[in-house]
Amino acid sequence: MNQENRINILLVDDRPENLLALEAIIERDEYNLIKAYSGEEALKYLLKYDFAVILLDVQMPGMDGFSTAKIIKAREKTKNIPILFITANNLDSEHIFMGYSVGAIDYLLKPFDPLILKSKLERFVELYLLNKKIIEQSKSLEDKNKTIEYIAYHDGLTSLPNRRMFHDVMIQNLMNAKNKNETLGLMYLDLDRFKSVNDSLGHLMGDKLLQQVSKRLVNAVREYDFVARLGGDEFVIVLSNSNREECLEVAEEILSSFKDPFYIDNFEFYITTCIGLSIFPYDGEDSNTLMKNADAALYRAKEQGKNEYKVYHSGMNIESYRKFLMQNELRKAIELDQFSIVYQPRIDVETGEVVNAEALIRWNHPSWGVVRPDVFIPIAEESNLIFEIDKWVLKKVCEQMSRWSNIPYLSIKVSVNFSAQHFLQRDLIKQIKQILNVSKMNPSMLEIEITESALLQNEETVLQALQQIKDLNIQIALDDYGTGYSSIKYLREFPFDTVKIDKSYIQDTTNPEKNSRVIVDSIITLVKNLGIHVVAEGVETIEQLNVIRNLQCNEVQGYFYSRPLPPEDFVLYVEKLNMENRQSKTSKNIKSVDNVIILEPKEEIGINKTLIEISIQIIKRENSLSTREVDVFSLIVEGLSNKEISENLFISEHTVKNHITNILSKLNVSDRVQAIALVYETCINEKKIK
């Protein structure tokens, strides 16, 4: 047996023959018998070895057994070693009592029985081994407890402290800060676009990125700052004994550290983070308040863009509280009948008639008044209330259109906006079918509008849903085109009937410093060549309308014609506008053939060409028309098309369009019909004068 694994037994006697006798009786391979010839020598061995049992002679010269035992029991290291006294058989009871009082476990009287000695020794050795095993198990259990405690207080992926340890450290730091009258900073961090890494490259790559982010955060802060991972891509940093300026320096250092790329396998990542910061005691005096306020600051940083940090201020709590209240109120809005639908007309550029309308929701809150959709719709999407809201809108629109179906001039399509989340619903088509069946509405009169952001993720799922909607004979419109990726791929692969150009481009078409007009022209040409209907959103001025008309867009929508109207006002508007346009078309002086306005010679009622030319010259002087514009205007009055005017004047059709736009603008009319009518009014007035 290995010497290190043998059991040490100490034999103490001043007579060598007695030690040899003991050795002969108890010797075994697993025992390491160490012999001492005096109490002093025994004490030296006790400093060097760990013994299972001590066989100690009582009667020794110098330091006797009692004195030796007393010292052994006084030492911390040796006090628990069992002592077996060996003594002569004539020892009186007083001496025996003395032995027990100084720590003896048992006595063996000389001459002793070898079997009794071996038996007693083996029992002590068993007790020693059992005690040793208990100590080892206790140490192992202690190590395991330390491991369990480490796991309980640290993140398994990054080895950073976790949420539980953060709370303990935060409470301790707050107590210290209060006692020492110090400030303390709390940072709440969230990575930007981390979800896209998981979605595109998988969670394993995302985990590796989080590990590197954790190391970079630790290196970016000061040695005494505390960094913890709360979960996902969220981290917190406690900055003890730090004022606002010092915390801002750390925040800037963190953002600066993220400028360098992360290298993982064969990939190079550029990822940023946003930080929310709250300061004790100004922004809160307890852990929960500081955390809530840091979270509010982080939310504001996210709203402002990527790679930002924001310091908490009281106004953020007001916004958070208002958002909380709004979410609760939204849950009851349908039940309390607080929603309403308004309709904004879409106008056909050629005819000037209402041919379509967009249904828009309004929230009429009893205390807050009318809440804008851009305020409550994002909250509804975050809380999944958008499903019930959009379902309610579709149901109300279908019911309204069913009531309008018997009114001839209200035979128009209506568009309904759908949130991107809807297209991930399994029962979306089933819900639409059910609403159509109950309302008994013609599906061909319904159009579903979606934004480009709805297509960015889950393209296959969205495409499948759109195709099923098309199969129901419902039309599909792509809304706000130009604000997202403006991908031509979507126009090619998705079954769109209509594309709506975002108002930000339309409203800049009259600004010569921007290229919006060229962009809008290109979009209209491209989309129309693909056989898709084009709508210009946000038309608010006559100048914008003239540009859009000149670019031959199909429809316009905007405040120039009308704001969104309640159903009853919308009906009156459609009736008035459409009837006026139809009466204009059937005017006895003018008729339309193949979209070209021509004069009926037999109905000139004495107005000859000379009078028309005089009238045109009068209009020229009053409205400052140029010579070339008069040439174009004269041919318009004669009923020539743009192409025919181009051929007659030897100029391009594009130039003709520009001249016509300028003419209509100077005459303050919206189309050719009104321009020609202005000429005939002038003719009649001139004839009366004569």
TrEMBL record:
Residues 182-314 form the GGDEF domain. Pfam families: EAL, GerE, GGDEF, Response_reg. This is Response regulator receiver modulated diguanylate cyclase/phosphodiesterase. Residues 8-125 form the Response regulatory domain. SUPFAM superfamilies: C-terminal effector domain of the bipartite response regulators, CheY-like, EAL domain-like, Nucleotide cyclase. PROSITE patterns: EAL (PS50883), GGDEF (PS50887), HTH_LUXR_1 (PS00622), HTH_LUXR_2 (PS50043), RESPONSE_REGULATORY (PS50110). The modification 4-aspartylphosphate is found at residue 57. Residues 618-683 form the HTH luxR-type domain. The keyword Transcription regulation applies. Residues 323-578 form the EAL domain. Keywords: DNA-binding, Phosphoprotein, Transcription, Transcription regulation, Two-component regulatory system. One of its GO terms (biological process) is regulation of DNA-templated transcription. GO terms for molecular function: DNA binding.
